[in-house]
Amino acid sequence: MKLTRNSKISDGYNWVCRSKNHRGVKSSRSVRTGSLFEKSKISLPSWLTFIYRFSQGLHLRQIDMMQDRIARSSKTLSRMAKVLRKICTKAMKEYQKRRRQQMGGQQEFVVIDESNFRHKRKYGRGRASTTWRRRKWVFGMLGVKHNLRRPILRLVTRRSRNHLIPIIVKHVRPGTILISDEWRAYRGVLANMGYRHFTVNHSHWFVDPNTGAHSQHLERAWLSYKTRVWRLRGNRTEKMLKEHLALIEWTNWLGERHRRGVLGRLFRDIYHQFPV
After folding, report:
1. Each residue of 146-166: pLDDT tens digit?
2. Which residues is 149 bridged to in the sheet?
């Protein structure tokens, strides 16, 4: 097929096949066929602008993007963001299958903690509905190695020992230094499993005066993660919250470590998931 200019269509080009097998009838198809943009009516320049803003982590205020004529409605912008989140989520799952997503070792210590990502009603008004049944606790593990930060975020039903310890064993290598608060789920267990476990009592101090252990790396990260999720209303459903948590992991594990940056990694994942 040959790429041909066509002023009658919005993209300006389409693929045309003039093979003799078509019996004199030209066969054509859109340049979007089989791509990320196949079912979208948004122009390609608008899509590329949105992908750039999405990858750079800019404040995706929908009113600003509508003023920039990327899309005409907030519903369309939400769908575009959802498509890109699914691409990042799928890429992260493939990475977990290949590399097992483990952290720790001699040069990297891991901070563990739990945080509440519950969706809050504005001013406490309105019906509570079934939102209280949603899983709201997120168990976080942050690998710290020099200036490198790698989070693993998992939505858990409860903060019990049976729910948290298997996640630690799966993702943290034995012999790693673990730092946590004195939550009873960790007490007296991690040291017996081959980890070097240090704790800090937040009722008395933020930095342990004897060992120097603290969890400020993850506490600061929680603020950044929650601000990002709440600003995009990513905690309204469990499914949406999982997508946003996976996007945070993708950014730190794959996006920022790519030689061409987050945008280059995003284009790479789009290419692999939509080969044209």
Report:
1. 999 999 999 999 999 999 999
2. 144
